[in-house]
């Protein structure tokens, strides 16, 4: 069954924010587009790629990509929605540090996040 903005068959695009990796950036937490599988960084992260993905594609639903979490956010309604199972994996690797990737995270990272 297909739900608006959610394609449960699409796997995630990777284990980290593709845009941050390409630009030698870093992220705090990860979000997964429930429609196309794009992995982007959260709004606390400096670059906010998950929200930017919604703004450029119109894909309305993001799921957490953090271990032990299970929730979805609808950008259009600005609200949490009932979580729907997506294709595995459900989260980034548990041994991946936060923030990540470790080699790109500046020592003053706490001063650089959005609160």
Protein model, in words:
Residues 86-100 have a biased composition (Pro residues). It comes from Nostocoides vanveenii. This is UBP-type zinc finger domain-containing protein. Residues 1-104 form the UBP-type domain. With 115 residues, this protein is an alpha+beta fold. The chain has one domain: Zinc/RING finger domain, C3HC4 (zinc finger) (Herpes Virus-1). The chain is 16% helix and 15% strand. It contains 3 helices and 5 strands, in the order αββαβββα. It has a 5-stranded antiparallel sheet with strand order 2-1-3-4-5. Strand 4 and strand 5 form a beta hairpin. It starts with 17 loop residues before the first helix and ends with a helix. The mean pLDDT is 96.
Strand order of the largest sheet: 2-1-3-4-5
Class based on secondary structure composition and strand pairing: alpha+beta
Detail the poorly predicted runs: none
According to CATH, what is the class?
Answer: Alpha Beta
The biggest sheet amounts to: 5 strands, antiparallel
What would the average pLDDT be, to the nearest integer?
A: 96
């Amino acid at each position: 069954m297909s739900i608006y903005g959610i394609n449960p068959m699409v796997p995630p695009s990777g284990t980290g924010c593709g845009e941050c990796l390409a630009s030698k950036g870093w992220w705090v937490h990860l979000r997964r587009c429930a429609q196309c599988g794009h992995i982007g960084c959260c709004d606390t992260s400096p670059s906010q790629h998950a929200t930017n993905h919604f703004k450029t594609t119109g894909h309305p639903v993001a799921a957490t990509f953090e271990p032990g979490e299970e929730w979805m956010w609808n950008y259009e309604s600005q609200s949490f929605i009932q979580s729907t199972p997506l294709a595995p994996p459900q989260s980034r690797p548990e041994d991946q540090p936060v923030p990540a990737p470790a080699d790109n995270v500046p020592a003053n990272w706490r001063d650089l996040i959005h609160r």
